[in-house]
Write a structure and sequence with these properties.
Layout: H1 5-13, H2 20-26, H3 33-46, H4 50-61, E1 77-81, H5 89-99, E2 104-108, H6 118-122, H7 134-144, E3 146-150, H8 157-168, H9 175-188, E4 193-200, H10 209-225, E5 230-236, E6 244-246, H11 248-258, H12 264-278, H13 281-290, H14 292-303, E7 317-322, E8 327-332, H15 334-344, E9 360-363, E10 370-371, E11 376-382, H16 390-394, E12 397-400, E13 410-414
Parallel strand pairs: 1-4, 2-3, 4-5
Antiparallel strand pairs: 5-13, 6-9, 7-11, 8-10, 8-12, 9-11
Helix pairs in contact: 1-3, 2-4, 4-9, 4-10, 5-11, 5-12, 5-14, 9-10, 12-13
Length: 415
């Protein structure tokens, strides 16, 4: 006779292992939330073996539908970021890769926290539609070379349930649970090659290099077990990526990057990611320099109902935040700046909160750059001047007399 669910929880609590069938039972819709939550806490406390983690991934993927991209007839690339402040890389990397002839299919989510997610950013573009059916997504990738859409309800339903429970039961911080959550959606999305951007630093989910490496290696191993070749980039998130933090302001920066005028850190990260996805750095450089990536972006936006030439939403007040002194910027605190943008309305404190696409913050001076007294450190885009907390934004910047050299945005590549 099979063990009861309570017996499986007890075994994991005491440091034992569950087999593939037992893990599938544990996360099935027939297991009550209170028992699944107890199991999640046992995993946080006791961990999981590599075999258990791979079996949990398979059970999560098997809980719903899978997107079949085989009819596209070519390997399809995907990328995912663990999230950060000013992270608009998909809007640049996707067109870069597509312009090199490698199809890109990505299912994305909405943001919770500092700023909007990829879908929120894209919805800044008038007319852009994120609710593609699987058939529409596949057809668009075949015709245009790229599609980015919202995740369908039947894709990895077990992860949605587990994610919600982890959020409210203090069971988020677990490498096996984080890795299977990310990789289950990527495996179910049907791509044949994957690049993961694992952020490291004060504005990242993984605050230190050791934990980021552990997560990256776990996801690489899961990808190998699932037949999805996975490469992880570890990238810095101590200050915002690029200069724009928000939604419409990030779309505008992404377009400028595709025009060849992007911030150095954003360009470096995006070109590095696209080079891994295409296996051809020279082709990526050419796609950016020639304008082919910008044209791929325009075709993509138009294919999903957007107008790439339409004005983006503009905030009612644009307020510069002056520097209190002359000197060099030593740091621009990503998390504090992201929180300031969220308070403006650029992000969500809860899933139900609306996002104001027009508001945000543009960083005028990043680490290593000199400012004079009164020169803008940042420019706040707000609904009204009353919404601008200039002191809080200025407090995100650390100034000093000595010049500093910021480290490269890409720390290392694994896998």
């Amino acid at each position: 006779m099979s063990d009861r669910i309570v017996d499986l929880i007890a075994r994991k609590r005491d440091g034992g292992e569950l087999d593939a069938g037992e893990l599938a039972r544990m996360i099935s819709k027939d297991t009550p939330d209170y028992q699944l939550a107890a199991f999640l806490m046992a995993v946080v406390l006791r961990g999981m073996s590599a075999r258990e983690t791979a079996d949990l991934l398979a059970a999560m993927v098997g809980s719903g539908a899978r997107l079949d991209l085989s009819s596209i007839g070519r390997p399809v690339a995907d990328k995912h970021s663990t999230g950060g402040v000013g992270d608009k890389t998909t809007l640049v990397v996707g067109p870069l890769v597509a312009a090199c002839g490698v199809p890109v299919a990505k299912l994305s989510g909405r943001g919770l926290g500092h700023t909007g997610g990829t879908l929120d950013k894209l919805e800044s573009i008038p007319g852009f539609r994120v609710d593609l059916t699987p058939a529409e997504l596949i057809d668009q990738v075949r015709r245009v070379g790229i599609a980015v859409a919202g995740q369908t309800a039947d894709l990895v339903p077990a992860d949605k349930r587990m994610y919600h429970l982890r959020d409210v039961t203090a069971t988020v911080q677990s490498i096996p649970l984080i890795a299977t959550s990310i990789m289950s959606k990527k495996v179910a999305s049907g791509a044949s090659r994957l690049v993961l951007d694992v952020k490291v630093g004060v504005g990242a989910f993984m605050p230190d290099l050791a934990s980021a490496r552990e997560l990256a290696d776990a996801m690489i191993e899961l990808g190998a077990a699932a037949g999805l070749p996975t490469t992880c980039m570890l990238t810095r998130m101590d200050e915002p990526l690029g200069r724009a933090v928000g939604n419409a302001v990030e779309v505008a920066e992404a377009v400028e990057t595709l025009r060849g005028n992007g911030p150095a850190d954003l360009v470096d990260l995006c070109v590095s990611a696209a080079a891994i996805m295409t296996d051809d750095r020279a082709a990526v450089d050419d796609a950016l320099a020639s304008g082919a990536a910008l044209e791929a972006y325009r075709r993509w936006i138009a294919a999903q109902g957007g107008d790439p030439d339409a004005p983006l939403p503009e905030a009612g007040a644009v307020v510069p935040v002056p520097s209190p002194r002359a000197g060099y910027v030593h740091s621009c605190h990503a998390l504090r700046l992201g929180d300031a943008a969220m308070r403006l309305g650029a992000g969500r404190a809860t899933k139900e909160d609306p996002v104001d696409h027009a508001v945000g913050i543009v960083v005028n001076a990043k680490a290593g750059e000199r400012v004079e007294r009164g020169q803008p450190l940042a420019t706040v885009h707000a609904r009204s001047p009353a919404d601008v907390d200039a002191a809080a934004v200025a407090a995100c910047f650390e100034l000093g007399d000595d010049d500093v050299q910021p480290p490269p945005v890409v720390i290392e590549i694994r896998g």
